[in-house]
Each structure stands twice: as structure tokens, then as C-alpha cells.
Amino acid sequence: MLSQPLQASFTLPNGAEVTIETGKLARQADGAVTVRQGNCILLATVCANKEPKEGQDFFPLSVDYQEKFASAGRIPGSFFKREARLNDYEILTSRLIDRALRPLFPEDYFCDVQVLISLISSDNEVMPDALACLAASAALAVSDVPIKEIISEARVARIDGAFVVNPTRSQLAKADMDFIIAATEKNLMMVEGESKECSEEDLLQVLQLAHDAIRIQIKAQEELRIKVGSPAKRDYTKPLQNEELQASVAAFCTDKMNTIAKGGTAKGERSDAFSALKDELIKSLGEEVDGSTKKLAKKYFDDLQWELVRNMMLEDRVRLDGRKMDEVRPLAMEVDPLPTPHGSSLFTRGETQSLTTVTLGTPLDELLIESAAVSDYSKFILHYNFPPFSTGEVKMMRGVGRREVGHGNLAMRSLKQMMPGNEYPYTVRVVSDILESNGSSSMATVCAGSLALMDAGVPVPKHVSGVAMGLISRGDGKYAILTDILGDEDHLGDMDFKVTGTRDGICGVQMDIKVDGLSMEVMREALMQARKGRLHILDAMYECMPAARAEVKPHAPRMEKIFIDKEFIGAVIGPQGKVIQEIQKETGTTINLEEVDNVGEVSIFSKEKEGLERALAWIKSIVAVPNVGDVYDAKVKSIQPYGAFVEFLPKKEGLLHISEISWKRLENMDGVLKEGDMVKVKLVGVDQKTGKFKLSRKALMPKPEGAPEQTDRRNERN
């Protein structure tokens, strides 16, 4: 018999009730809860091994968020008709949870932990990603898996000037700010989001509102934990310690390590020096030392490096490469380095380099973005690639990793703020290939992407740049904020804070915090220092490429977009698509036609200008309404004794009377015209009774001097 489930609930500022429940589902997991808002239900489970694997010296946490298609009453569209690998949306949601949960575990906890969150019932108006971290944290809270604190996440969006916590899907579609924030009772842990050029003060207001909402969610989790019986957190095997060895490592390495750290050398030289010192340390221990002792000595070496470099920055205000705290590394950039892509750029900042290309496609190239609740198409795509040679490593080339998906998404969300709207007919794909990496290749992607878009002639109004910020802090209140952090500074620091934007505001933010007690004042200082760095990079970008090209490059597909009356859509398409297929075949174009708001939108794409002009003229002729006085290129369809019948528009014929062919009197049609001839004519009238069109060729010819007026001979027909 099932046990009676236990519940705790809270109410969102918009009046929606959220219920957390445990004790009914997945009872063999170490912790399991469901979170429900409306018809949206998430199931979160956590399982952890009792002991770490032998020799394991890192924390193996895996977090997977998956949406079951049955939750929305749908069958997956794949060949096997079942859920397969996580899609990008599920990966990004998994990363949001992972980044928030990871700092909660003790530093010496090395047992495998698996957190699984599944959407088992979908609600079209409830965004499940804003509830997924709440579910994961609640599953940990009711378990005996050791965590230091309880957390939660909240989404805050600005809609019509007002801030809304956990807005509905319909509301979110109208937002100009959209941020997801994770926090404990006291501290912010993670920020991810986008905005249409918001100010730093706007962002700080969002963080404060989110933190207030999160505290309510944490209180509900604590209430549920008490109802479960507040299970004691399990004990676990601690890593071996050797204080004598630790002291020996410090005595041997401290001075030499300080010399290397303060040398201001490049990444490779510095890395080689630290590696050589580590080898020297291991050699000094003697041949008789066993493998576990050597491994522990290497750990103490890394710990000492972490402490010494951080203290160097805090006390001496000196960075590993010799820069000032707010200094951006040297910049180098160029546009159009590649002759064939539709747009390209090479952006280098210090030892980080991105080669980025832009490809312009048709609406047929749009990307299908599918989740359980929604299937939509995107006309803007950004892909980020991080090959192993960018860091001088040898690794297997496998599929795209979560890191690449996450970094590419941040760059995409940032650049998307400046992209033209749906009226822009091209599908745009940006690809960033990282050729070198030593700190914030995602921010290099934003800068390179902005330059490449302008090089391609995409009408983006402003450049977007990005900069990665770091934080080094200590318990005594000392801290240092670092602009344009190195890879080593990211590893050694307490915060990784990426900010993108234009000269007028913030477009994207991604922040992970590893330390307790980050105040709003420190956040404000970091944001303002980031703004200074962002503007410095933007100045260099505008010098390289002041504005988008007025036109696409000659080898890029040409495009024209026209709007036609709804009644002509069928005529352009033709029976079973024959007309539009013929136009595409004869002109070498790609044509996309759709009805939007009772108007036909026709987009024509062609690699050749001539083909585009032919297709455009063809379609215009189909939808054209004959106007008296207009001139047409007509095709002779048949010859009669009294003139020629010509087609001057598709499916529209008129009589070119023998008296209207020339100023010279013609006795008959012999040798004058033949079927298939092209002749330029002018529409001179429409018979009000019959609707027949009256055409003239001579009206387009200069009247010979002294030529008599010809009489209309149409009544001569017997």
C-alpha cells in the first residue's frame, strides 16, 4: 500500500500555487519529489553512491533534464518514436541546474551523484525550466545526500515595463528582459539571461526581486524536509590527508611558485614552468615514495598554487600576465578574411581567437526547435565549436558537448537582440570556430559574430561585444574584480561573470558564483567595471567595421520580398504547385510563399541577379491588374486577318488590331507578325460592355511627319 504523500506549497506573486510533494513516486531513490504548477508536473530524483570510486579525486555530479513527449500528449517525431539524446533546450536546462547545484556539495565529497528531472505533465502556459532547479533541490533536501544549503531558481522578466516573477509562456513572448537566477537563502549562485539593452541598475533590481522570490521557495523546501523527518545527512569517506607532506610541498615550492606567478609570461610558458616545478617536486620526494603519496603531493601543489596566486592578486594587485585589474588584453580583428563565406571575421583578444562565418539562407533553412509543449522555427542560428587544438591538446573528436551548446547559446541570445525582425527574409547561420583559447571564447564569439554579421550585410544597427569578469575574495573582506579573465584566473577565482551588450545596454549575462557572501555592492562594482571593458572592446570593433554593409556580397543569395493580395496566392502557386515550380525551374530561384495576416508574402532568393529579376517580373505579371496607359511585353498567340491576339499578362489576352500595329496602312497580316513573336504594346482602353482589352503598338512609335490619321478599321470585319 502506498504511503500518504507529504506536501508543502507556496504562492507566486501572480497568484499561481506551486506544490512540492514527496513519498508517493520513485520511493527507492535517495530523494524524490514532484513539483506542480497548474498542469505542469516535474519529477526529480537523486541517487548517490555510498563510497567514492577508488582513487577518485573529483566530484562526479551528473544532472539531466528531459521532457517526456507524452506529457503534452505527443509522440516523438524521430524514426524510433521514442525520446533519444537530450536536445539543446534540455541540455541548457540541465546546465542551469548543474551550475546551481554543484557548489552546494562539500569540497571533499567525491561520491557519484545523479540528479534526474523529468517533465511528466506539460502545461502550455507554464515554463518548466523555472521550476526544474526547485525540484532538484527539493529532492536533495528530503534525502540524506550531504549538501551544505538548500537553493532554488526563479525567472524574472520585464513585460510592458513591469517585472514579473515566473511569467507565463504568453507573457514571456512580450518580455524585453528574461533572466533565471539561482540562490541560497543568503547568496546568489547563478544568473543566466538576455535583455534588449537593459541598464546595470535594471539588472540589479531583477536580482533582488528574484532573491526575494527564491527565499519563499527555500522556506517551502525546509517545511517539506521537516515533515519528512529531517533525515540526517550521511557520513562519507574523507580523502586522506598528510600534514607533514603538505608542509614539505609548501617549503619546497612557495618561493619558486611565486616567481613563476609574478613573471607575467604567456599561458604556454607559464604552464610549462608550473609543470616543470611539479616534476621537480615529485623527484625530490625520492624513488621509494609510493603512487598515492605522489598523487597527494600533486594535490597539495595545486592547492598551494591556488592560494598563492589568489593572494598575489589580493595583496600585490598583480595578475598572472602582468595586466592591471581592469585591463583588457591586446585586441586584433579583421573582417572578410575568407573569400567564399557570405560574411566572416577573425577576432583575437590576447590568446583567445575566433574565426567566425555567416551564411545567408532561405526560409527553407530555418531551424526547428522542438520541446514537449512547443514546436517553433528559428531564422537565426549560432553554432560554437571548440576543437582540442585550441588549447594545444589531443582529444577525441566526438559530438558537440554541453559546454559548446551552452557557450553558443549565450552568444546567440546576445546577438539576437540586434537581429532584424521577421520581415527580414534570410535565415542566418553564424558559426564560431575557436582557434585559440585562454579565457572566454564565448565572449570572443559574440565580438566576432557581430563583425561577421555586419560584413555579411545583415542590417544589425549596433555592434555587440562581451567581456568575462572574475572575482578573487577572502574572508577578511578583501576582494579583487578582474576584467577579461584568463583561463587560469577563471579556475582560481570565485566568480565567472560574462556580460555582453552594446554601448546602450546589456544584451546577455551568464554568471556562476563559487563563494558565499557576494553583496549587491560588489555586484554593482563588477557590472560597472564590465561596462568599461565592454565599451573599450566596442570602440575597437567600430574602428574595424563602423556599420553593416549596405548590400550583401555579390556571391551571396539575392533576395526580394513582395506582398500580394490573398486572392492571387492560388494563381502564383498554380494547380498542384505547377506554376511556382515552373518559375523556380526556369529562373533558378527559390521561392517561399506564405499567407500572413490575410496577405501573401512572397520571398524570392537567387544566386544570380538576372534570375531574381526574371522571377520577380514573372510573379508581378501574374498578380498584376491591367491599367490603361501601361506598356507590356506581349506574346503573339494567334494571327487573324484583322490583327493579332496577344497575351500581355499571364492568362490575359487582347486584340492588337491591324490598324494599331503601325502608322503605315496595312492591307493584310501577311509577313507582319507570326505566332510566338514578342511585341511591345500599350493598353489604350477596355470595352465597358465586354471587358475586352484594346491594345496598340503604334501608340509607342513616333508619328511620321505628315502622316494622315488612320481610321479605325475594326468595323471592316464581315
UniProtKB/TrEMBL annotation:
CDD domains: KH-I_PNPase (cd02393), RNase_PH_PNPase_2 (cd11364), S1_PNPase (cd04472). Residues 629-698 form the S1 motif domain. Its EC number is 2.7.7.8. It catalyses: RNA(n+1) + phosphate = RNA(n) + a ribonucleoside 5'-diphosphate. InterPro entries: ExoRNase_PH_dom1, ExoRNase_PH_dom2, ExoRNase_PH_dom2_sf, KH_dom, KH_dom_type_1, KH_dom_type_1_sf, NA-bd_OB-fold, PNPase. It is an enzyme of class 2 (transferase). GO terms for biological process: mRNA catabolic process; RNA processing. Residues 697-718 are annotated as: Disordered. It is found in: Cytoplasm. GO terms for molecular function: 3'-5'-RNA exonuclease activity; magnesium ion binding; polyribonucleotide nucleotidyltransferase activity; RNA binding. One of its GO terms (cellular component) is cytosol. Its main location: cytoplasm. Keywords: Cytoplasm, Magnesium, Metal-binding, Nucleotidyltransferase, RNA-binding, Transferase. Its cofactor is Mg(2+). It comes from the Bacteria. Mg(2+) binds at residues 490, 496. Involved in mRNA degradation. Catalyzes the phosphorolysis of single-stranded polyribonucleotides processively in the 3'- to 5'-direction. HAMAP family: PNPase. Belongs to the polyribonucleotide nucleotidyltransferase family. This is Polyribonucleotide nucleotidyltransferase. The lineage of its organism: Bacteria, Pseudomonadati, Bacteroidota, Chitinophagia, Chitinophagales.
